[in-house]
């Protein structure tokens, strides 16, 4: 009889022990990693902090966030042009354990700015799909790809399928004619004020070419605190 009582007590205690272990596991502070794709190598980026409320997540400076411009294959800007631009987070960004950090379709508001050596996208605000706006300090790599355009040589191929800053449109129209610019999509920007001598006798012009899918991934300048996953 005593043996039966002891076995019964052990069976009753086992679930309690498992609950205690599970509780310790879910509340422990543990680092996690971020994957941009199934084949990407994990990069340590943040730490979960236990709380009785849903947890926020902080990404440290130096974290890379994939982003791109969806509406065109490339963006053309004058070398001295400043261009407001909205880019998109194309895929869900999650931890290695599946926690959602930034949903796909989130937008990044910022500006393409002239810098030493080319142009650079500087991010200012992250807008989540639910409308939450989060201040964001991040930037792309410096984009230094330049293209010289001459009449009858390569203008149409470059412009077709491109988003064109108003400054670039001004100098290109001086070389190729206004009707050729309609092959692209002109964005608001600095306009004629960006010319600054870039028209070389109206026989050729130089613009900076931004690959809309490859050149706009961001690196955080400072840490980013995200709201609890939704």
Briefly say what this structure is.
By secondary structure, this protein is an alpha+beta fold. Helix content is 20%, strand content 35%.
Structural notes for this entry:
The chain starts with a helix and ends with a strand. With 230 residues, the protein is an alpha+beta fold. The chain has one domain: Lipocalin, CATH 2.40.128. It has helices at residues 2-27, 155-159, 166-176, 178-181, and strands spanning 30-35, 43-48, 57-59, 64-65, 74-77, 83-88, 93-95, 100-102, 107-115, 118-127, 133-139, 146-149, 162-164, 185-186, 205-211, 218-220, 224-226. The model is unreliable at 1-53 and 190-201 (pLDDT under 50). It is elongated. It contains four helices and 17 strands. A hairpin with a 7-residue loop joins strand 1 and strand 2 (43-48). A six-stranded antiparallel beta sheet has the order 8-7-1-2-3-17, with no helix packed on it. A six-stranded antiparallel beta sheet has the order 4-16-11-10-9-6, with no helix packed on it. Strands 12-15-5-13-14 form a five-stranded mixed beta sheet.
């Amino acid at each position: 009889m005593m043996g039966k009582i002891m076995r019964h007590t052990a069976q009753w205690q086992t679930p309690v022990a498992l609950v205690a272990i599970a509780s310790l596991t879910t509340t422990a502070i543990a680092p996690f990693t971020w994957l941009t794709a199934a084949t990407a190598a994990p990069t340590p980026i943040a730490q979960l902090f236990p709380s009785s409320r849903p947890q926020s997540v902080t990404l440290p400076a130096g974290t890379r966030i994939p982003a791109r411009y969806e509406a065109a294959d490339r963006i053309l800007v004058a070398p001295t042009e400043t261009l407001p631009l909205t880019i998109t987070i194309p895929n869900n960004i999650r931890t290695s354990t599946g926690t959602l950090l930034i949903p796909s379709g989130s937008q990044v508001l910022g500006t393409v700015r002239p810098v030493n050596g080319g142009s650079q996208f500087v991010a200012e605000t992250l807008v989540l799909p639910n409308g939450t706006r989060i201040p964001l300090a991040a930037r792309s790599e410096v984009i230094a790809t330049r293209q010289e355009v001459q009449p009858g040589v390569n203008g149409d191929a470059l412009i077709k399928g491109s988003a064109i800053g108003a400054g670039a449109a001004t100098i290109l129209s001086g070389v190729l004619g206004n009707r050729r610019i309609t092959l692209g999509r002109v964005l608001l920007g600095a306009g004629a004020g960006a010319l600054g001598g870039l028209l070389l006798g109206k026989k050729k012009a130089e613009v900076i070419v931004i690959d809309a899918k490859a050149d706009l991934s961001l690196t955080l300048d400072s840490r980013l605190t995200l709201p609890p996953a939704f």
